[in-house]
Amino acid sequence: QTAMKVYAPLARQALANAERLGVDRALTGPLLRGDVGTLRGHLEMLSQNSPEAIPLYVEVARREVAIARRRGELAEDRAQQIETLLSEAVDNGG
């Protein structure tokens, strides 16, 4: 119940933004900011609690990186760091 109270409004707003702006323009978050630390934390938590979800997370993350690159909002060095982390997550059994 707590998770629904927290995440349901976020999900509704994200969908409304995507509908209004289009997915590329509406997308926000740590991958678009090049926040490697947050990405690393997400992957660690998934590895500990839900390793079967890592392949899906990685695929979504790669699509977000592509969007960020297209928008010109992600420095190439950060994009490469993210790609390396994502590849390592998959290679380590995700």
Describe this structure in words.
There is one protein chain. The chain has helices spanning 2-21, 23-26, 30-33, 36-49, 54-71, 76-91. Helix 4 (36-49) packs parallel to helix 6 (76-91) and helix 5 (54-71) runs antiparallel to helix 6. With 94 residues, it is mainly α. It starts with a helix and ends with a helix. The protein is flat. 81% of the residues lie in helices and 0% in strands.
What is the topology?
Elements lengths: L1 H20 L1 H4 L3 H4 L2 H14 L4 H18 L4 H16 L3
Short description:
This protein is mainly alpha-helical and 94 residues long. It has six helices and no strands.
Keywords:
94 residues; mainly alpha; 0% strand; flat
Largest sheet: none
Number of DSSP E strands: 0
Q: Tell me, what's the shape?
A: flat
SS content category: mainly alpha
The low-confidence runs, each spanning 5 or more residues with pLDDT under 50, are: none
Helix content: over 70%
Percent of residues in β-strands: under 5%
Number of helices: 6
Radius of gyration: 14 Å
**Separation of the first and last Cα atoms:** 28 Å
Please trace the helix and strand order, writing H or E for each element. HHHHHH
Average residue pLDDT: 92
